[in-house]
Design brief:
This protein has about 120 residues and is mostly helical. It has 4 helices and no strands. The radius of gyration is 22 Å and the shape is elongated.
Length: about 120
């Protein structure tokens, strides 16, 4: 679902002119500033953010696959589907490092590796 974005000026992004063009230019539309030096700095920072995101996604997928392998190995040997003490350990690690949001991240990671309960 697409929604219009309201810029800080209160106008709708891309709707400042009848033809949908933004009078502040393409760089300002992408970065939120008309200052070219700031726009360049923002673009460089965003490139690094995108690199980090790609790494996070790859690590997330690798972690989920490894976790699924642990679970399959444990169950094949007659073990339980889950080891709750291990899940608590992971939840606590993320909570200590990241606060309340860390708990949410850990819950998502755990679900990716074992599926929903």
């Amino acid at each position: 679902m697409m929604t219009d974005v309201v810029e800080s000026s209160g106008s709708l992004a891309g709707h400042d002119r009848p033809n949908g063009t933004n009078p502040t230019g393409a760089a300002a539309a992408r970065t939120g500033t008309e200052d070219s030096a700031a726009a360049e700095r923002i673009a460089a920072i965003r490139e690094r953010i995108d690199e980090i995101d790609r790494t996070i996604i790859a690590l997330w997928q690798e972690r989920a696959a490894l976790s699924q392998e642990v679970g399959a190995t444990r169950m094949a040997s007659g073990g339980t589907r889950l080891v709750l003490s291990r899940e608590r350990e992971i939840l606590e690690r993320f909570r200590e490092a990241l606060g309340a949001d860390g708990t949410q991240v850990a819950l998502l990671l755990l679900r990716a590796g074992r599926g929903p309960l």
